[in-house]
Amino acid sequence: MDNIFLNLEKPATAACWDGAPEIIAISGANLAELENRLKGVAEKFTASPSANYLTEFAADSRACFSPGHACRLLWVVESPDEGLQGIHAAMDHLKQTQTACWNLKNIFYGENDCPGKLAFVFPGQGSQYLHMGQDLVRCFPEAMQTLMEANPIVDGNRKLTDAIYPLNATEAQASLEERLRSTDIAQPAIGAVSLAMMKVIRRFDIKPDATCGHSYGEISALYSGGFFDERTFLSLSAARGKYMADAGNAGEKGGMLAVKAPLDRIQSLIAASSLDLVLANRNSPDQGVLSGPTGAIEQMRDICKENRVRAMVLPVSAAFHSRLVKDAAVPFREKLNAVEFAPGGI
User: Fold this and answer.
1) 91 in Cβ contact with 43 (< 8 Å)
2) Whole-number pLDDT of residue 28
3) Band (273; pLDDT cuts 50, 70, 90)
4) Among residues 27, 61, 237, 321, which one is catalytic?
5) Percent of the chain clearing pLDDT 70 (strictly above)
6) Which of 95, 121, 184, 339 could form a disulfide with 245 if both were Cys (CB 3.0 to 4.6 A apart)?
7) What is the pTM for the complete model shown?
8) Bridge partners for 256 per DSSP
9) Are the beta carbons of 22 and 106 closer than 8 angstroms?
10) Alpha-carbon distance 146 to 11, whole Å?
């Protein structure tokens, strides 16, 4: 892994231009204050348009940025030459529009004197992908340490990091993706990366007012909310993945199909088809996910195509939230019964 994770000990706030994009953030209690700060920055950039000044200013701007300010502007600078251009573009657009929120390519502006509360939303299985979280793991030592400590939670001699960040360049991409998609690997892998991201966010003293998660992500949300400790979180993640994988291996694994249509229409398609499918996930009023045997999933995909309904088979290894994985519930409940939940203030 040494050839993947680089510059682990460099402080996150250090200013050093290495060709990577810089993030500059400016805030003000009101629009006039923010515009004055932008004007001052433009004057300094004109006097010192060097790359060193850009990185130093970017680091200082992030340190001084206040999310409590009513007016907030951020832009991503991909080269030193773009610094002054971005400032002028932001200043011009602020004068030309009265819109409270807008974006121009890499420039983002938001105005709200009552920012509200912050919620963390955690993903479930199907959101995994090769090299997920790699940039954060490269830059933040706590993220790297989290992944290394999570390695032993899977059974056997397998390592989570080998599945997430494979080193075998000769192995086919599809084979690597299938290995990570395996339920007993995907769930603890998503959990470990989510945990690493939580630690990075914690470094910047960002805390949620509420947490929630989809499917497996419920466990991440409970940990983030302070309901149990890190060891319990990793243990539950590995157990849930293992029990669901074992249930899926008992016979027909099945699959899942995301359908872009109103939920009542999706239910009508299921009823009309008489297929052994359930509407497992109600993600929004016009998007749901079906779960069931592989053959039924493929038939419904064709039915959706005939009815001009967008549908996509999800990259999962079983028919989650359906009868095909129900055998995982009993052993996982026993595992949960041994856990002491301690709800906090989140």
Assistant:
1) no
2) 92
3) very high
4) 321
5) 90
6) 184
7) 0.74
8) 291
9) no
10) 17
Q: For residues 23 and 210, what is the distance between their CA atoms, to the nearest angstrom?
A: 27
Sequence letter at residue 228: F
Contact 230, 195 (CB under 8 A): yes
Reduce the secondary structure of 21-34 to three states and give it as a string: CEEEEEEECCHHHH
Scan for tokens 């004055």, then name that residue. 36
Give residue 4's pLDDT: 40
Degrees, nearest 5: CA angle 229-232-238: 140
CA distance linking residue 29 with residue 333, whole number of Å:
50
* Residue 215 designated active-site: yes
Q: Which tens digit of pLDDT belongs to each residue from 175-204? A: 899 899 999 999 999 999 999 999 999 988
Q: Pull the structure tokens for residue 324.
A: 């095909």
Q: Pairing state of beta strands 107-111 and 71-77? A: antiparallel
Mean pLDDT of the chain: 87
Query: At 274, phi and psi to the nearest 5?
Result: 60, 25
Choose, from 215, 237, 291, 317, the residue flagged as catalytic. Answer: 215
Answer for the pair 187, 125: CB distance below 8 angstroms, yes or no.
yes
Per-residue 3-state assignment (H helix, E strand, C coil) for 55-99:
HHHHHHHHHHCCCCCCEEEEEEECCCCHHHHHHHHHHHHHHHCCC
Within the chain, strands assigned E span 22-28, 71-77, 101-104, 107-111, 119-122, 210-213, 255-260, 278-284, 287-292, 310-313
Q: CB 245: neighbour CB atoms within 10 A?
A: 20
Q: What's the pLDDT score for residue 58?
A: 82
Residue 303 parent element (H or E): helix 294-306
CA distance 300 to 308: 12
